[in-house]
Amino acid sequence: METTTIIILGVVFLVSFLLIEGLYFLISDWRKSKYRQMNRRMAMLSEGRSSQEVMLRLRRESAYDAQGNILEVLANKLDGLLAQSGAGVSIPQLFMICTMFSLISVGAFFVLQALNPLTIAVSVILPFLLPLLILKLVRGRRISKFNEQLPECIDVVVRALRAGHPISSAIGLAASELPDPIGSEFGLAVDEMQYGLDLNESLTNMEKRVGSPDLRMLVITVQIQGEIGGNLAEILSSISRVIRERFKIRRKAKALSAEGRFSAIVLGILPIAVFLAINVLSPKYYTLVQDDQGFIISMGIGMILMFIGYFVMYRMTNFKI
User: Fold this and answer.
1) pLDDT at 24
2) Count of Cβ atoms closer than 10 Å to residue 67 Cβ
3) Which of 83, 189, 201, 258 is most buried (most C-beta within 10 Å)?
4) What is the dihedral of CA 300, 303, 304, 309, to 10 degrees?
5) How far apart are CA 9 and CA 7, in angstroms?
């Protein structure tokens, strides 16, 4: 059997295996979608699971500790991305999904008979990074939804404090009444307090899991109030008003920059789309000059300038408020 045939069969086997794995994860995710549409913690408790089991599972899904050597820091950064996006998958599963995307892309170029060193590099690197980009988008949307729910959650806590409840009981009341993502996150903080952590530690852990700047402001406020005293209900009420105003300003800035963001997306996708289209329509277009030194240098300079342009457009259309 020829070497090329063996390679083709190996690629087909890997693509088939990873497609089956991907379908399995999609079906599992669909079956668990009810947990994402409501408070996951309350849903698991209603199934008869103990609070300790629920806490351990949610903490395992939200593991985040950015210490250690370079590989450990990278793994923990990925853990943080997965936890803050609420994906519920592990790093090996994420790596398998990224590899599946790359193999499918390489297989598509092979079927179209458009494989060359450039298309192999593009079809391996870009699809491999695609799930990470999707996770970053999902994380951003989850944090935005959390920030949108946060003022309402603070109002529930304030009403409970004014009714005479302690802060831990007030947080537990908010956790049981609000949907995800804020319901499960506050519920996990309550579970941590019940199993030995103090209020400051549990809130700090929640801030690391979520990654919201508004939540960080709330956590710092509660920590300072615990040290110097004061009317916590009034302080939290003021924080709620500030967060609502910040949310309004963010929405206004997003609306004003919508045209610029759309232009940045089009300009970012266009060079890659043209490159792929040329390779599909005329596979020999680049292969005729791929060994030329001037072509290699010009392609390198072009890619560097393209990424600089992406960075500039991103900075021009994204505002931190």
Assistant:
1) 63
2) 7
3) 189
4) 160
5) 5
Contact 125, 139 (CB under 8 A): no
Q: What is the pLDDT of residue 151?
A: 92
Q: In one letter, which amino acid is 263? A: S
In terms of Cα–Cα distance, which of 247, 197, 193, 203 is closest to 225?
203
Q: How far is the C-alpha of 123 from the C-alpha of 134, rounded, in Å?
A: 17
Question: Among the residues of the chain, which ranges form H helices?
Answer: 3-31, 33-37, 40-46, 51-61, 70-85, 91-111, 117-162, 167-177, 182-194, 199-210, 213-228, 232-256, 258-281, 284-287, 293-317
Residue 282, SS3 per DSSP = coil
Instruction: Report whether pLDDT(8) > 70.
Output: no
Q: At what angle do helices 232-256 and 117-162 cross, to 10 degrees?
A: 150
CA distance 132 to 94: 9
Average pLDDT over the chain, rounded to an integer? 77
Query: Which residues 6+ apart lie within 8 Å of 27 measured at CB?
Result: none
- Show Cβ contacts of residue 79 under 8 Å, excluding neighbours closer than 6 positions: 63, 64, 65, 91
pTM: 0.67
**CA-based end-to-end distance of the chain:** 62
Summarize the confidence of residues 268-276 as an average pLDDT: 83
The answer to whether residues 15 and 103 touch, using CB atoms and an 8 Å cutoff, is: yes
Q: What share of the chain is helix, strand, coil (3-state, %, to 5)?
A: 85, 0, 15
Mean pLDDT for 228-232 is: 83
CATH of 146-248, one of 2.60.220, 1.20.81, 2.40.30, 1.10.10: 1.20.81
Confidence of residue 133 (pLDDT cuts 50, 70, 90): confident
Give the mean model confidence (pLDDT) for residues 106-114.
71
Length of the chain, please?
321
Q: Which residue pairs, CB below 8 angstroms and at least 24 apart, start in 254-260?
A: 257/317, 257/318, 257/319, 260/313, 260/316, 260/317
Percent of the chain at pLDDT > 70 equals 74
Q: How deeply is 142 buried, as exposed, middle or buried, from its count of CB atoms within 10 A (0-12, 13-18, 19+)?
A: buried
